[in-house]
């Protein structure tokens, strides 16, 4: 009869630690966030934190896993709706903007952590990379739908990585200006320009002696 309530209390304590640590690390960074700060903020003793996670790095990995799971779950399917490229692009950017707005801590932690990777363990860095890979895969699939790039995966990947670099820059800017928002207007212009550049590149006839291009850009 007492085991289940104890387990519930343990789960609540663990969640409280993860939520508190995530907010603090998002605000101050991994290196500047101490166990004592987490303990003071969440109201749980340091011994409880060590019991659940073993170390500060264990908390860090748990925070990253939680942020990754929450943000990826919030992303819509990659089959972006819309009758044409511009409608689909608007829908894609609205989804990115919404995720950025609703998960500010996760975006700062998981997109801006290149600044602090030297202070983190291999497990934490691996978690960041898993998350970034998952985001790239989602953005690549979505932008492949937006621009009709199913036969040109390298172009879709370039557009996806460009989008995430823009989001990363905004996440880093939030360390200094918390109110910074993701500016999807310029991002929209840039994505359309990049796609037009690739389209014009495959339409240019090869010069004398140059190999013909097949337009797949694979």
From TrEMBL:
Pfam families: TetR_N. Residues 34-53 bind DNA. Gene3D superfamilies: Tetracycline Repressor, domain 2. It comes from Streptomyces lucensis JCM 4490. Keywords: DNA-binding, Transcription, Transcription regulation. Residues 11-71 form the HTH tetR-type domain. InterPro entries: Homeodomain-like_sf (IPR009057), HTH-type_TetR-like_transc_reg (IPR050109), HTH_TetR (IPR001647). Coiled coil: none annotated. One of its GO terms (molecular function) is DNA-binding transcription factor activity. This is TetR family transcriptional regulator. Transmembrane segments: none annotated.
């Amino acid at each position: 009869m007492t085991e289940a309530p104890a387990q519930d209390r343990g789960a609540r304590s663990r969640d409280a630690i993860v939520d508190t640590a995530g907010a603090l690390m998002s605000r101050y960074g991994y290196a500047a966030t101490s166990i004592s700060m987490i303990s003071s903020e969440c109201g749980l003793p340091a011994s409880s934190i060590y019991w659940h996670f073993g170390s500060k790095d264990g908390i860090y990995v748990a925070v990253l896993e939680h942020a990754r799971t929450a943000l990826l779950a919030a992303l819509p399917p990659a089959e972006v709706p819309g009758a044409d490229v511009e409608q689909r692009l608007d829908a894609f950017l609205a989804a990115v903007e919404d995720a950025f707005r609703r998960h500010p801590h996760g975006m700062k932690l998981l997109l801006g952590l290149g600044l602090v990777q030297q202070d983190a363990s291999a497990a934490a860095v691996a978690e960041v990379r898993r998350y970034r890979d998952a985001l790239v895969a989602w953005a690549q699939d979505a932008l492949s739908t937006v621009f009709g790039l199913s036969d040109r995966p390298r172009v879709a990947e370039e557009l996806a990585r460009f989008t995430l670099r823009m989001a990363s820059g905004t996440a880093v800017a939030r360390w200094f200006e918390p109110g910074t928002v993701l500016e999807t207007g310029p991002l929209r212009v840039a994505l359309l320009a990049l796609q037009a550049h690739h389209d014009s590149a495959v339409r240019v006839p090869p010069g004398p002696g140059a190999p013909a291009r097949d337009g797949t850009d694979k």
